[in-house]
Amino acid sequence: MSRTCTLCGKKAARANTVSHSNIKTPRHQKPNLQTVKMSGTKVKACTTCRRTLNKKLSA
């Protein structure tokens, strides 16, 4: 399974690691995915979507 949020579609972004000598090395910034149980099925959701779900469910 890929590292993408099933709710919003957020996936890894490209960024550069910059050293002291200003050499740029490419790297990936992965989203903070957590497994959440929604209506009996397990879903990979990012923390932003998870917070939004908690807000909407509690109100």
Describe this structure in words.
- It is a single chain.
- Helices cover about 20% and strands about 40% of the residues.
- It is of the alpha+beta class.
- It has a domain at about 35-59.
- The strands form two sheets. The chain has a two-stranded antiparallel ribbon with strand order 1-2. Strands 3-4 form a two-stranded antiparallel sheet.
- β3 (about 35-40) and β4 form a beta hairpin.
- The chain is elongated, with a radius of gyration of 16 Å.
- The protein starts with 12 loop residues before the first strand and ends with a helix.
- About 10% of the residues are buried.
- The mean pLDDT is about 95.
Terminal CA distance: 32 Å
Mean pLDDT: 93
Instruction: Give, in order, the helices and strands.
Output: EEEEH
Strand percentage lies at 35-45%
Helix percent band: 10-25%
* Number of strand elements: 4
Low-pLDDT ranges: none
Strand order of the largest sheet: 1-2
- Give the helix tally: 1
Largest sheet geometry: 2 strands, antiparallel
What overall form do the CA principal axes indicate?
A: elongated
Q: What Rg do the Cα atoms give?
A: 16 Å
Structural class: alpha+beta
SSE topology sketch:
Layout: E1 13-18, E2 24-29, E3 33-38, E4 41-46, H1 47-58
Antiparallel strand pairs: 1-2, 3-4
